[in-house]
User: Fold this.
Amino acid sequence: MNPSRTLRARNVGLALSIVVMGVSPLAAQVQPGAPATAPATAPTTAPAAAVDAALHQAAHAQGQACGDALLAGDFKTLIRFTHPKIIEMVGGVDAMIATLEKGEREMKTGGMRLTAVTIGAPLQIITTETAAFAVLPQRINLALSGGQALHDSFLLGHSTDRGATWTFVDGTGLNDRTMKLLFPDAPADLKLPAKQKPTFISDK
Assistant:
């Protein structure tokens, strides 16, 4: 394999691990081999059209605000949109900010920077008796030596106040076990998009 391509892939992987809003610490806290269990709460009847539209609008707007905060390095705002369980696992707000600031410095040292974070309209919203869940497409653009990387993934939004306010988890770190840890009440028909690898676009 071309050594420069290998290094580039590692750099993209490092950068993306920095921008997933603290999901990576979950892996160390989930016991390997632990069986996944079916969620206990079934989704309720679909809401009326007006309510459904409001849910979509709020989830999309707040998801993009989360992405904008990440792009701007506004970590206080980013944490406000981050699922509280993530913040707890990292060690609290101060520890989360310190982790994000360290990651930002590492990206700059490696010659990488975020150039865009785009959040699309929800692909799916499901409400239960206790919460609402939203899957929103996400594209991260990352500039690095020799070109740029594009990574298509998703945010999983969670609301406990009928969709008025949302917090998010980056989908890059989600799997059956982390879902069980974070969202034990997630409905069975919540469909998470398949993981995708970053695409590198050369300047040449």
About this structure: The first strand starts at residue 113 and ends at 119. Residues 1-48 have pLDDT under 50 and may be disordered.
